[in-house]
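User: Need the bound-state model for magnesium ion:
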Amino acid sequence: MALFGLGGSKSTVALDIGSGYLKLVAMDHGKGEPVLSRVAVAPVLADAIVEGEVMDPDIVADTVQGLFKSAGIKQKQVVVAVGGRDVIIKKIQVDRMKESDAYEVVRWEAQQHVPFDIEAVELDFQILDPDGEGLQMDVLLVAAKRDLVEDKLQLLAQAGLEAVIVDVDAFALHNAFELNYPEAKQGVVALLNIGHEVTNVNILLGGIPLLTRDLSIGTRKFREDLQRERGMSAEDADALLQGYELTADLEPFVQNRGEEMAVGLERAGAFLQTAARDAGTLQRVYCCGGGARIPGLSDVLGQRLRLPVEVATPLQRLRVKDQVFDTVNADEVGPLLMLATGLALRARR
Ligand SMILES: Nc1ncnc2c1ncn2[C@@H]1O[C@H](COP(=O)(O)OP(=O)(O)OP(=O)(O)O)[C@@H](O)[C@H]1O
Ligand SMILES: [Mg+2]
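Assistant: Bound-state model below.
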């Protein structure tokens, strides 16, 4: 599902515009399985993107252009995603009908579920049980504020790019995760994408997204802790967070912030129990995003939640062309690429 899309070439270029890092992934969609053919990342200047909002489009557009140049990519068509508060994903039920007839009905239903003016949203939906026989069918509804989509398109235009698909963060994460962790299709699992500012929580049942939530916590908070409480420079703090050792300086913050994240996840889980009684309880947690690499964080989450927690990467099963990771460290950058990989997996038919 995507908010809109067009047909096109065999290679998909995806761009994940994060508040900390820009991530570019190119995927070849020839015959057979998709193959990752290019990766590039670049830091975003501090505060150019705050809470998902691009404060300084000039700087971000320049950084995007630089990224394409460094990756040697000339293709201008890209796949991007929107997410956050202004995107609503909801499972609804409507009378069973053909997909082609459903749009008007879903749009009408959407008015009851979407807290924004329906005239100002981009809407899409997917029938979750197309082969079901009941009188009603489950429909996954997606609504994004049109402003959000338009701002993104404009930013891309400024960088000389054109969005061929605008996807939704949660779906892209899910797509990449599903391909790489087929074993997670059983029971209830959570995928945490721990970014610079936001942690996207995705709870899946039998591989199907049940609940998505954003927690306002990411690597930025850990960095600020270290700056404020330990007098470190931003660079030193980042080096510690991207290192391999849980030092005495870092330990208390990993403990506290880890607790905070665990509570956020538990709340989402509790909501799940009321929303879907037969769903069962959470069995395993996968973490991706730059924050997943913070030394000791997955251990703290595991102890607090009493669950197995593992770091997830889109490179777990994905085929990768030779030399893609000659200049980028796959172990270090891999976890950051889940969203962009999910976007790039969209073969354009
Ligand atoms: N190898 C790495 N390269 C760059 N950043 C890394 C690396 N490992 C960990 N990090 C940390 O992860 C952060 C970026 O993670 P990520 O790309 O997931 O966030 P983002 O998508 O930019 O943020 P958000 O989704 O919240 O807007 C950086 O701020 C940095 O602290
Ligand atoms: Mg991100």
